Amino acid sequence: MSLLRRLQDTMVPKRASTQTWMVLTFALFVGLAVVAVALYVTVVLRSEMQTAMRQTLRGQAERIAIQIEREDDPESRARVLRDIGRLTDLRLRVVTPDTTLNSQPVADTTLIDAAALSGMRSLTTRFAQRSTGETTFFYVALHRPGDGFALQLGQPSPPLYDLVERSQLVLILGMVLALVMAVIGSWIAAYQITTPLKTISETARRVAEGRRAGKIRINSRAAEFQDLADSLNRASSAFREKIDELERVTALQKEFIGNVGHEVRNPIFAISGYLEALGTPRLTDDMRKRYAEKALVNLERLQNLFNDLIEIARLEYREDLINRQVFDLKDLVHEVGEMLRPKAEKKGLDLQIDIPRFRVHADRSRIRQVLVNLIDNAIAYTDAGTVRCRVQRRLDKVRVEVVDTGKGIDEEHLERIFERFYRVDPDRSRESGGTGLGLSIVKQILQAHGEQIHVESTKGRGTRFWFELPYQEEPEAVEA
After folding, report:
1. Percent of residues, the chain, with pLDDT higher than 70
2. pTM exceeds 0.70 for this model
3. Which of 54, 356, 466, 479 is close enough to 401 for a disulfide, judged by CB 3.0 to 4.6 Å?
4. DSSP calls for 242-257
5. Considering the chain, what is the average pLDDT of its residues?
6. Are 373 and 340 in contact (CB under 8 A)?
7. What contacts 283, CB < 8 A, 6 or more positions away?
8. How many helices (H) and strands (E) does the chain have?
9. How many other C-beta atoms lie within 10 A of the C-beta of residue 403?
C-alpha cells in the first residue's frame, strides 16, 4: 500500500487546477480505451486472423494432396501441379524421397525437403510467412505418413486479409486521433468551466479581503453557471445592503451614544450645581426653594430620558410587548384628549377631538403612547390656533391624523424628525422638558404593529402626522 501511495503521490498531483484534472481524467480513460483496442487489434485479432489463414491453407493443402495421391507417376503429378498453378495463384511443391516437383520453375521457400522427409514418421504440418516486395505469401507444408510424399502450398495474402490489416492500422490511428481529440476537447470543456469559476473565485477573494466586489459577469452559455452567477449576485446585493445597513446602524449608534452622553450630562451638571448652591449658608428660604424645584425639574427630565431609552430598547428587542386586542378608538382618543386638554387651554389652544366610533385591532396601551406623544408634541410646538385629532375609515384600515396650526417644519428636517434626539428647535425642546425620543418611540411602536408613521408640513401653516390601524367590524347582534 505504501508503494502504491508513493506512486500515486508521484504521478498524481495533490493540488492542481480543475482544467488539469479534467484533461488528465479524459486522457486516462480514453487512453485506457485506446490501449485496450490496440492490444485487441495487434494481439487477439491478428492471432485470430493467422489461425483462420492457417486453417484455410491446411484445408486447401489436404484437398490438393488428395488429387495428387490419385496420380501414380511423377509426370502426372507434375502435370496436376502445373494445371493448378496455372489456374490459381498458388505455389505448389511435392517432395518424395526420390523427386521434388514444383508448380513454379524455382521454389522460393522450402519447408520440407527429401532429407527431412525421410525422417518423418507422423503427421506433420508446418507454416511460414514470407514477404517478397509488396506481396506477402503464406505457406503450409503437409506430410501424411500414408501418402509417401509431402505437399508444400504457398498463397499470396487474400484481398480480405489485406483489407483487415489496413483496417487494423486505420483503427489504431483512429483511436490515437480520438485520444488527441479527447484531450483537446477536454481542455476546451475545462476552459469553458474553469473560466466562470475563476471569475467567481476572484470575486469571492475580493469579498474575503474586505473589498466590495461588483456584479459577477460570466461569458458562458451553461445554464448552471448563469443561475449560479445570478444567485451569487443576488446574495452579494443582499450582503451589500446588510453591510450598508450595519454601517448606518453603527454610525447611528455612535451618534446615539454621543447624544445620550450629552443629554445626560446637562441635567446632571444642573442638579449638581443646584445641590451645591443649596449648601451655601447665606441663601434665603425662597432661593433654597427655587433651587430645589429646579433640581427636581432636571431630575424629572433625567428620569424621563431614562424611561424613554428603556422603552425604545424594549420595543427593539422584545416583539412580544405588542398585545393586540379589539377596542374602541373613540374612547381612547377622548381619554388622551381629556388628559392633555389642560395643557392646551393653558396655551390658549383649541384642542378639537370629535371623531366617529371605530373599532380597531391593536395594542391599546401602545396606541395610547402614540396619541399622547403626537398630540403633546403638537401642543408644545403650536403657539396659537388649533390642534385637531381626526379619524376616518379607509377600506380595511382606520386612519388617525393629528393636525396643528403651528410654525411647521422645514422640508430638510422632515426625513430626520423620527431619529433619536433629533430636534428641529433644540432650545425650545429642552425648555419644554422633551427628551427628543418621543417621535422615535412612536415610530418603533407603529413598526411593531406593521404600520408606518407619516408626516407632511408647510412652513408657517402647520404640520400633519398620520398613521393607520386595522379596522375591526362590529359584532353582529344575536337575537334572543
Report:
1. 75
2. no
3. 466
4. HHHHHHHHHHHHHHHH
5. 76
6. no
7. 277, 291
8. 13, 12
9. 18
